[in-house]
Amino acid sequence: MVKQITIGLIAFLIIVTGSLLYFYKFSPRYTTISEADISALKSMPLPSRLIFDEDTLFIPRSLGAQFDGFINSDMENAVHRFFKHISDEYTDKLSKEGNTNPFLIIQCETNANDEDTLTDLVSYTLQVDDENIILIAPYPNGILYGLETISQLIESNKDKIWIRSVRLKYNNPKNH
Fold first, then answer.
1. Helices 140-153 and 73-90 sit at what angle, rounded to 10 degrees?
2. Alpha-carbon span 167 to 111, nearest angstrom
3. 9 and 43 share one domain
4. SS3 label, residue 104
5. Distances, alpha carbon 94 to alpha carbons 55, 59, 65, 113, in Å
6. Are residues 167 and 98 part of one domain?
7. Mean pLDDT in order along the chain per 10 residues (176 residues)
8. Residue 92 belongs to what domain range?
9. What is the pTM of this model?
């Protein structure tokens, strides 16, 4: 009897320990971002995944957007405000060279019919390379949150503004 209890207790401890290790190592709530990238990041909230690349996107004077998939007036207005903010804040620093339209590519997969779903789903994926910014989200709120992240990633000096090339993903913690 004591042997069976001991074996059962050991098995229980192995299962609990394995579950805890799995949870802490593989849980999507924990970031896969390196400490160096966390210290370089100036955006809130912290993305789920982040990889900085070597390239840089110098923000051009010709700010254009391309919408793919679902689009609504909130998204159009948000892009307009985003461009206005960049133009107002950095007029003298926008690059005269390079990029042609579209500069910002927005892909929204669908509209949510359920208001609670729309509120909860703010996940998005953002990719910045040396030519474009690509923002992908399953729902419009993800697009709005992604535009704010782009604003937070802008860097400048006295002559120009830029965004470091990056690939990031943000998942709303409520959805995990």
1. 10
2. 24
3. no
4. strand
5. 17, 6, 16, 39
6. yes
7. 78 66 45 64 73 88 89 93 91 74 86 54 90 92 92 90 90 60
8. 36-175
9. 0.72
Task: Write the CATH number for 48.
Answer: 3.30.379.10
Count of structural domains within the chain:
2
Q: Same structural domain for residues 14 and 48?
A: no
- Which residues lie below 8 Å from residue 104, measured CB to CB, with a gap of 6+? 63, 64, 65, 66, 79, 82, 132, 133, 135, 150
Q: Do 80 and 164 belong together in one domain?
A: yes
Q: Which pLDDT belongs to residue 24? A: 46
Q: CB-based contacts of 74: which residues, under 8 Å, 6+ apart?
A: 140, 144
CA angle 154, 48, 174 (to 5 degrees): 115
pLDDT at 132: 92
pLDDT value of position 175: 47
Tokens of 121: 């789903």
